[in-house]
Design a protein that fits this description.
homodimer; mainly alpha; Transcription Regulator spoIIAA; two-stranded antiparallel ribbon
């Protein structure tokens, strides 16, 4: 295997060979900032997934290292993210009760299954399948998931009891934390700058805001002994290296997890690839979707082997990594080391952290995912996109994440097929003095009684072949003097066997009615295919290179005026 | 309601007002020929559907009369047909045992349900839904159904016992009848002409061939008492008017029959409409699919109210009606009278008719439906159409008519979406000395390092939006000197919200990479929609009317050479 082939198989070799000192400094600074940001996020998303907080740390180590080796994005940060954690909780909830050892084992199995699927999809180059999740479906899905997450976490933030009673101190801590986090996003950095801190330091400290907030809440809880007053705390978090683990080889379980694992894989991949592409393009770099599948697959298998749960490339952390100046995936590897140190030495400090503060970080994080503008923009742009958003949103809220995704994809495909089954067909006439032809209903154009021109705005296939037949039948029935019909084919990108059959039928009927059928501006690939059939032999007319040429030959009274 | 509005609601009033003496003669002659042909067919298809033979006659009376009132085709003949009879037998077989009174009641219920569905579909103008049955799917389905029918009837033709033993006399009668019918199709008319008969009479007598064959077999059976030697005969057929009947109002049954009834409706409608359209076009007439739905619905409800079973417009009988010179639907009404007379007076004559001869007429009729050339033509034309034929054919043969249809439709839709999810995107360059732009890989064209032109051969929607993004990303990554990218949009008939999002992303990334994005030849409807968005404001470039204009402005070194 040549160095080049190896480099192509392992993207890491590409950047590692040219690794230099100033790149190292940039990567180390970015890693520090991302590590500070990731610690509370990892803990919070693990609890969102129904797992002990330390699992969130475990799921951030191996995946970050593996992505540094296999990933094609230079700045993507992989780990637990909100929506995938919710999907994980939903998927496992049917098989185990939260907090049990079996629950954690099912989470590991789910990560393994999802990783294996991603790798297989990558090796089979199936990355394009993710495109079937349309933008409206993703938007509706993410917004609904964020609402579901926020509502669920709000109970913890308010310390609601099963009977619906709020716990006063808990809700005070939780709501204060929510308010602080919302303010810290925008207000903390300007405040630090106004205190005269250097920009770079202000930036790092602003990113550390959430960690500081959590630390303060933990110190206050310890000092005032709020945990004795009923404030739920994180409690003992085992310190140490991530454990070695593996999936449960239970065929019945694997079978039932297959569908959730597939949906988690696709959603994770879509989220990860869109972040990766956006950031890569800013530096004129590229990511390769099929190899991203393999990389994310490796990350999830890695998570499964180190006591984690399903992970993917996260939006917020990758943007922070990018903004902090990360140059290569080494930044991700350094972040992994940071999290590993946290897992080894920081866990005792987590004992007094109120659960409400972790939930507050989740609420604030997911509310930024809620995008209601999409309802307005799609309503203005296209009703079918709008209905895809609404259906995905409502079905996700009412029936859960899996039903919502499936309903959204099915509806968008049906709407697409439905739309293309009724293509726009315009009768066109000549714009006086030009070689252009336009819709007779919209423009002042020249037409002839003996010749009709139809332009079909869409490929011809089984679901719309009859539409053209009906239109031609109607035209011929209402024009007794018609001698020539010319189909302008400039927008026909494909003609399938049903449509060809339909064209044969149209040709035959026109011939029986004494009308010639001509084609103009047929595309190369379509023409190639027609030439393999008898259609052109049967055609009771000509194929013209341009529509103007067809009309000037067949109806010179139109062609001559110019 | 004006006369015109009424005529539009009842197509009958259109032709009945101008009905004249010579039209009457033409219609009467056609009705005679079709009646002679329909009597054995009706009996045979009723037994194919698992019903007593007289039900076939009942199902040919009211539907023909109702079609004459509501139908928009002037020559379509409605009644029992082979494929729908097979689907009927399959659907009822799960609910009742053949020959029982309950079986007949379920058949009536199925006809009623199918009729009601057709009428509702017609009133909602859902006729276009039938287009989702692609030509390859219909071909594969009809061929497989014909094989299933022929194999089933061959048992009766050969007099096979349950143990697989052939009955000698039965098989002699059956096979002789099959041979005679095959010969009579082509050989009978020339023979009669060679005997000096006038052409018109020879035509009528040739059509009467099958009836004559059945009569001869009945006379021989009576004379030689073959029924005592084990030849199964039709036996007592009750004479009289069709009985008044109605559906079973059993909700559980109606629910279970809903899917079969829907499939029967769609298949029947597709068969009927294609025959009707073909024949109407030969006389420069038209049929209206949505009103055909209502007419066929009325026919099936009529069949349900007169002891019948599901019916539709038949191919062979309609062509015979057309060829025999039928001018108006009155011919169908006269045929109904003919069949009614047969039901009243002819049934005693059916006693000695061997069942094998009826099955022989079915075998010969359905074998003409087998179309294996479609395998060859679709293989040559398009692999996806070929696979639709093969899958429909095999699933129908292996798992039955309903599974076959559903599998075929689902596969064709998936293949279509898959195809459009990977549109052809060509980089184009200028053909020297012209204003034309062609694929750089296929033609000797002029290109510039600073400007790239991409032509997308397909509408942009969610499933393919990413393909364009990937292509643009790759192009920009490999061309450091690129300044302008022009998308030639002549074949883009639609841009959905996901694709718009994708274009926004492409525009943003190109801008960040210092490349201008331009569009050329954007279609009117697409431009209208884009103008309602912010995309054109954000666009880091221009929209040009023609691609040539764009290139000559942006890369004058290309535009100048001519």
């Amino acid at each position: 295997m040549s160095v080049r082939a190896l480099a192509s198989a392992l993207p890491m070799l590409d950047w590692a060979r040219h690794y230099q000192r100033d790149t190292l400094v940039s990567d180390l600074v970015a890693a520090l900032i991302v590590t500070i940001m990731l610690i509370p996020q990892s803990l919070a998303y693990a609890t969102l997934a129904g797992l002990p907080p330390e699992v969130g740390l475990y799921a951030s180590i191996a995946p970050l290292l593996l992505y540094a080796v296999f990933g094609t994005s230079r700045v993507l940060a992989v780990g637990p993210v909100a929506v995938v954690s919710l999907m994980t909780a939903t998927a496992i909830g049917e098989h185990a009760s939260s907090g049990s050892a079996h629950y954690a084992a099912v989470a590991i199995t789910l990560a393994f299954l999802s990783g294996a699927m991603l790798m297989v999809m990558g090796l089979l180059r199936l990355g394009f399948l993710a495109s079937f999740l349309s933008h409206p479906v993703i938007s509706g899905f993410i917004t609904a998931s964020a609402v579901l997450i926020a509502v669920g976490q709000l109970k913890v933030v308010l310390g609601l009891s099963a009977a619906g009673q709020m716990h006063f101190i808990t809700s005070a801590i939780g709501l204060t934390m929510v308010a602080f986090l919302f303010w810290a996003r925008r207000g903390l950095k300007p405040l630090l700058l106004s205190w005269g801190l250097p920009a770079r330091l202000a930036d790092v400290l602003a990113k550390a805001g959430p960690v500081a907030g959590i630390a303060v809440s933990a110190v206050l809880t310890w000092h005032f002994e709020w945990h004795l007053a009923g404030v739920k705390i994180v409690g003992t978090v085992p310190a140490g290296l991530p454990p070695l683990s593996g999936p449960l080889w239970d065929m019945a379980l694997l079978k039932e997890l297959a569908m959730p694992a597939l949906l988690i894989s696709v959603v994770g991949f879509v989220e990860s690839v869109s972040v990766g592409q956006t950031l890569a393009a800013k530096r004129r770099q590229r990511i390769e979707p099929d190899r991203e599948l393999v990389a994310l697959g490796a990350c999830n298998v890695g998570a499964a082997m180190t006591g984690g749960f399903p992970v993917t490339g996260g939006f917020a952390r990758s943007v922070v990594n990018f903004d902090a100046g990360a140059q290569t995936p080494a930044a991700g590897a350094f972040t992994a080391v940071g999290i590993l140190l946290a897992a080894l030495f920081l866990t005792p400090a987590l004992y007094f952290v109120p659960q409400a503060t972790l939930s507050a970080t989740i609420v604030v994080a997911v509310l930024s995912l809620v995008d209601l503008r999409i309802l307005k923009t799609t309503w203005a742009y296209s009703r079918s996109d709008f209905s895809a958003v609404v259906v995905t949103l409502l079905v996700t809220l009412a029936a859960g994440v899996e039903a919502g995704l499936v309903a959204g994809v099915a509806l968008s495909l049906m709407l697409y097929v439905f739309k293309t089954s009724r293509p726009h067909i315009a009768e066109v006439g000549r714009v006086p003095g030009t070689e252009h032809f336009r819709n007779v209903l919209r423009h002042q154009v020249e037409v002839s009684e003996r010749l009709a021109s139809l332009r079909v705005d869409g490929s011809l296939y089984f679901a719309n072949a009859r539409v053209l037949e009906d239109r031609v039948n109607a035209l011929v029935a209402e024009r007794p003097q018609l001698e020539h019909l010319v189909l302008q084919c400039s927008a026909i990108n494909d003609i399938d066997a049903s449509a060809l059959e339909s064209l044969e039928a149209i040709n035959l009927r026109l011939a029986e009615a004494g009308v010639h059928l001509h084609l103009s501006e047929v595309k190369g690939p379509v023409m190639d295919r027609l030439q393999g059939t008898d259609f052109l032999k049967h055609l009771n007319g000509q194929v013209y290179l341009s529509h103007f040429k067809a009309v000037s030959e067949l109806a010179p009274e139109l062609g001559a005026q110019s």
